[in-house]
Amino acid sequence: MAKEIFMPKLSSTMEIGTLLQWFKEEGDQVENGEPLFEIMTDKINIEVEAYDDGVLLKKYFGADEEIPCNFVIGFIGKEGESVPAVSPGIAGSDSNSNEQAPLEVETKLESKESSESNTVTQSGKVRATPAARRVARDEHVKLQLVQGSGPKGRIQERDVHEFLLNTSTDLRISPLAKKIADTEQLDVATLTGTGLNGKIVKQDVTDALKSKQKPVEVAALKTRKKLSGMRKVIAERMQQSVTTAPHVTLTSDVDMTKVKDLRAQLKPIIEKQTGLNLSFTEVIIKAVGNVLSRHPKVNASLIGDEIVFNEEVNVGLAVAVEDGLMVPVLKNVDIKGLSHLTVEAKDLAKRAREQKLLPDQMKGSTFTVSNLGMYAIDAFTPIINLPETAILGIGRIQDKPVVINGSIEVRPMMVVSLSFDHRAVDGAPAAEFLTELKRVLENPFELLV
Q: Is residue 422 among the annotated active site residues?
């Protein structure tokens, strides 16, 4: 019997995964434990292994498609076995049973409609799942024409897809797309479908009409890229942060003379022990951890209507990757030495750039550091990584004239910017934290005590 391949649920908060690529094609032999496909969720790329031997019989989704957790995305079985033409939906559901497993993940729109779609009204309203109603609405299908396969004839999403396949032309065109094409006298045989299983949808027709009606001007050509995957996750979280948390940012100039001296003295020692180069980033993270341990209000998380004072000091380090940003977490920073932090920070940054971070390496941060010191940036306003209550931005180290004991001297200066959530932290404790961080960085040898 063919076995389902489903979108895994990797955490309690995961609702949707993005399919990045398949490692096998339909008809290929698959072995248990062999990488089968790659997904992305919560900024992490994960290779998913096959859990059965057999032949890859069916792939229902392609690259860059977003799929709910536990949704069937393919089948593995014996060569020649029969499998559904479209995805049967949630893994483990049985269209022949009297009850169907409810969706664990629904869109907001589906959830809104669920209460009225789960029952039959006395007015004779069609019984259909929220997913089926959504597809029918998008494809302009009358549910009264669809034969339901669920309990008591309830229409499932796959029933709508099968109706579309059976009632469309050999070119697999949606009813709405066909109607528009017929009205505009557009030859659909020249179109390439971007819908499920290569079906021509409304967007394909309208795009073709635009190209036909408007001559292409070279100066007006634009490259467009869908907001998806990691970029979409970042966009949603940044929007949530700035619209939810009232940000206040404090800045301070730090004299990095003694940090440079400390690094110069420790660099050959740590390099001999680890083979790695001690950077300013590790020294700054160590100083941040040291100060956070004495400022619990800044090392807190705002969850619901509660301020959680974290016992551990776990610092997230923002790392730029291709088309996005990842924040691996260094745990218990306050009790680790610079040698240990150098090894761990370098390893996590490398894993982030190669997109090989494990889920646990992205969890549990209580404070974040974003360092743009490698660029010509003096200061910036970092956005808080919720549910944390604060984030520290690091600018470049630059020689500047400063007044020391009444005399002007040139010193290596660095601007630090602390953004904090004013719902959980007031200005005074935030300022105390930043003031002490400045003091520790200007007297960094106490970090060795």
A: yes
